[in-house]
Amino acid sequence: MLIIDSKDCENIDKALKKYKKKFEKAKILLQLRERQSFTKPSVRRRTEVLKAVYRQQLANGEIEK
Q1: pLDDT category, 7, cuts 50, 70, 90?
Q2: What CA–CA distance (Å, rounded) separates 60 from 18?
Q3: HSE, side-chain direction, 13 A CA sphere, residue 23
Q4: At what angle do helices 12-26 and 28-36 cross, to 10 degrees?
Q5: Residue 10: its pLDDT value, please?
Q6: Are 2 and 19 in contact (CB under 8 A)?
Q7: What start-end ranges are recorded for coiled-coil regions in this protein (predicted)?
Q8: pLDDT tens, 27-63?
């Protein structure tokens, strides 16, 4: 649970902005998306390897954006 400490004189917009930043830093939305469907560990590992290969090819200049 996210708790935002706000002063009595603080504007509600500022408190909302603080809440949104804390929400992003906590990565709650990413966790919810991951939990929507189960991916096998072998599939997860395979996608990580493919992403790493792609990033390496971009760094080497083999692939152009």
Answers
A1: confident
A2: 40
A3: 8
A4: 50
A5: 78
A6: yes
A7: 9-36
A8: 999 999 989 999 999 999 999 999 999 999 999 999 8
Residue 1 pLDDT > 90, yes or no? no
Distance CA 20, CA 60 (A): 37
Q: Quote the radius of gyration of the chain (alpha carbons, Å).
A: 20
Task: Indicate the Cα dihedral angle 4, 21, 16, 1, nearest 10°.
Answer: -40
**Secondary structure of the chain in HEC code, one letter for each residue:** CCCCCCCCCCCHHHHHHHHHHHHHHHCHHHHHHHHHCCCCHHHHHHHHHHHHHHHHHHHHCCCCC
